[in-house]
Amino acid sequence: MVEQVFYWIAFIMTSMTALFAAVMVITRSNPISAAMFLVLNFVSVAILYLLLRFPFIAVIQVMIYAGAIMMLVVFVIMLLNVEEEERRKKIAVSLAQVISVVLVLMLCAQLVVGVGIQKIPGKHGAFTAEQLAEVGDVKAVAQMLFTTYLFPFEIASIILLVGIIGAVILSKKER
């Protein structure tokens, strides 16, 4: 009973932290502070993986996303020398922003009600909980990554490489 209460409190706090960090990422005008909030978001997602009892995926999340990818993002931001926008003295709220906030709140309410009332249908994965416990999550991730999801994995790596090359080309100064 106490474990369940701790689990739900940790889950709610971590989820709220992840949501807060995600909102801060898209609302910051300074790209470096947005990148730091993105690191907080990645760490929060890693904690959620730990709560789901996937420690390997949590460690990979922190090492790859919060470590390597964020170092790359900050490097590209510094390389491009992105300057901070001028601060607006007057805060103007448009109708589109108000409608967006209302729609997001309605979506969140629908998700809470939908999850609380009915079971969400979905497709079960290739591994059941018993099979995962037997083979381990590392082997399951490796098997899925290099069989079923090999093509999307390769496409993601090519897109990342193209982004790096594009950033270097954009940052070159004319001679």
What's the quick description here?
This protein has 175 residues and is mainly alpha-helical.
Helix content: over 70%
What is the CATH C-level name of the largest domain?
Answer: Mainly Alpha
Give the CATH topology of the largest domain. Four Helix Bundle (Hemerythrin (Met), subunit A)
Class computed from helices, strands and strand pairing: mainly alpha
How would a textbook summarize the main sheet?
A: none
Q: Mean pLDDT score, rounded? A: 80
Instruction: Write down the Rg.
Output: 20 Å
Question: Mind telling me which CATH architecture of the largest domain this is?
Answer: Up-down Bundle
Structural domains: how many: 2
Instruction: List the secondary-structure elements in sequence, H or E.
Output: HHHHHHH
Beta strand %: under 5%
| Spans where pLDDT lies below 50 across 5 or more residues | none
Distance between the termini: 68 Å
Morphology: globular
CATH homologous superfamily grouping of the largest domain: NADH-ubiquinone/plastoquinone oxidoreductase chain 6, subunit NuoJ
Count of helical segments?
A: 7
What is the number of E strands?
A: 0
Sequence-ordered SSE layout with sheet pairings:
Elements: H1 2-27, H2 31-51, H3 55-80, H4 95-117, H5 129-135, H6 137-146, H7 150-171
Helix pairs in contact: 1-2, 2-3, 3-7
